[in-house]
Amino acid sequence: MPLLEVQDLRIELPTRRGTLAAVDGVSFAIEPGKVLGVVGESGAGKSLTGTAVIGLLEPPLRIAGGRILFDGRRIDNLPYEQMRRIRGREIGAIFQDPLTSLNPLYTVGRQLTETILTHTEMTPTQARRRAVELLGEVGIPSPEQRVDAYPHQFSGGMRQRVVIALALCVNPRLVIADEPTTALDVSIQAQIIALLKRLCREHGTAVMLVTHDMGVIAETADDVAVMYAGRIAEIGPVRDVVKNPGHPYTAGLMASIPAIGGPRDRLRQIDGSMPRLFEIPQGCAFHPRCPHAFARCTAERPEALPTGRTLAACWLHDTPEAVDA
Amino acid sequence: MPETKTRGGVEFARPAAGETLVRARDLACHFEVSAPLLTRLLERRPRTMLKAVDGIDLDVRRGETFSVVGESGCGKSTVARLLVGLYRPTGGTIEFEGVDLAALRGRAERAPFHRKVQMIFQDPYASLNPRWRVRDIIAEPIRTHRLLTEPAALRRRVDELLSQVGLSPTDADKFPHEFSGGQRQRISIARGLASEPEFLVCDEPTSALDVSVQAQILNLLKDLQREYGLTYLFISHNLAVIYHISDRVGVMYLGRLVEVAEVGDLFARPLHPYTRLLLETVPDLEMSGRDRQPMAGEVPSPIDPPTGCAFHPRCPFANDRCRSERPRLRHAHGAAVACHAIEEARLPVDSAGVPLEGRRA
Hints:
The complex is a heterodimer of chains A (325) and B (361). Chain A is α/β, with parallel strands linked by helices and 325 residues long. Chain A is 33% helix and 24% strand. In chain B, a hairpin with a 2-residue loop joins strand 1 (3-7) and strand 2 (10-14). Chain B starts with a strand and ends with a strand. Classes of the chains: A alpha/beta (325), B alpha/beta (361). At the A-B interface, helix 6, helix 7, helix 8, helix 9 and helix 10 of A face helix 6, helix 7, helix 8, helix 10 and strand 15 of B. Strand 11 (259-260) of chain A pairs antiparallel with strand 15 (359-360) of chain B, so a sheet runs across the interface.
């Protein structure tokens, strides 16, 4: 049974110009021990989806439809206090900027023990021992001394490790990681990715990894959901989405990433840019930029259709002799 | 035979490609990061200097794209700012077209240099004045250098620049907030081109953009270079972007250049251990099943850099000489590399090859 199931999620943003759907009709599931990558351009709704799962949407943003099930239980309509207990205890979160996720006034040890004490029955001594152990586990050298340091005394990569330790300190079953490596250098990025992968393997933690970096997804995720203008354009096993994309947007996205070792001529580019929320076109949101668009794409919104091993929201796949994108 | 071309009504001669356009020798830039004077006196602490750029030599040839790659804090952006004259070097010299910049006195003498050298910044949200219309933003360098004075000609030139970067002349009367990140970067490029520069310094021009937009901007930069024979200094931390756009690449580590090579050589046969590790860490989109080798350790603080070779604490090949003596850039195997292990042939060169096909970042 999937640990997290999101069904037909819709997130709305009321504005003076009317209600906008920032996320619409998003469905996916994550099994224990698996990593789902959520990828897309800025504004595609990938972070909002993650925020909705941990119940931290900022008003006026609100969940306007669909259901979020955690371990078979609905969590999108829980009262604040109940959700607060699940968050931290069962679902951990890692955000992009490690500096804003840590309180600069407290030592990292105090922040870790506080979280542990809030969510478990441990004594303060046990909690502190656990904090030291965690810092060692995420690869911080001499954790016995570092536990009493303040966030500013750590470098960016080390700080992100502390944030990961904080998210994992009570062994959550699901971790929402929102761009956990974006603020880091590539060499540090590799260390953090290796760490996430190892924890996933060892503790059976499920991870929802939100990022715009296809390279990180390709190396880490089991499945990937490609988002465009608030909807899932394509979802499926990572290998199939990367190697054999069924949606023209995914294909264009993959082709536009520069490759080392390939030819050094012009990159394939998708002309134009993703529509803003208040000007999402009728039918398929991608049709104005799509080289394969036909009449139906401008009128009717495509549903997720099977293409090989992935699901793509594209009318090209609605015919028996589906065209290759 | 210099070829003459008219652009925006101004005649200019284009000298032959290949000669050195920018030459820096022993270039250094130090920033003082000391505690306040009183604290320093009371606690008897010396002044602390951050050596952002610590003695680098580099030549940028006319018409090429020279890239500087490195991790954050390695000093690559400081190099960019030194070369356009935004920072004054602490030591060393910069020559542009054979003229030593330090010898130029006053605004009037420096004006021709500033016209020929322009910069494109990383953040297209912060580098455009939100209260100015696009037309005024792009026209500013033209007005400053009095290239065109007649309003109608100025208007035509701005329209032409907008078309060159793939925007519409009707966009000229809008404000920056009406554009997306990619379009704003196009406006920055149009402004950069307005004074008909020869040397364009691009500091992480695509880092703030999404990949599909990044491809558009990289293609545009390549097209403009082909059309106008521009010379680029390109700063990036993204190795795939560097591979794509560069002719030659300099790898920086803690304020020093550790390797300079032709782009093909650098990626096929990296010499310096740091370059090798950097290439190892590029995410692998093809998923050959190879786990990335996480590079141990982090970049040390440039305030208190390690002795000898700055890379030695992270280097698997370091010996006593590396810990005590700073290596200089030396020619080896068709590139320039600052490494004792390479010089002493302790480090095999051919085994360095990383499987490169399809590595993307």
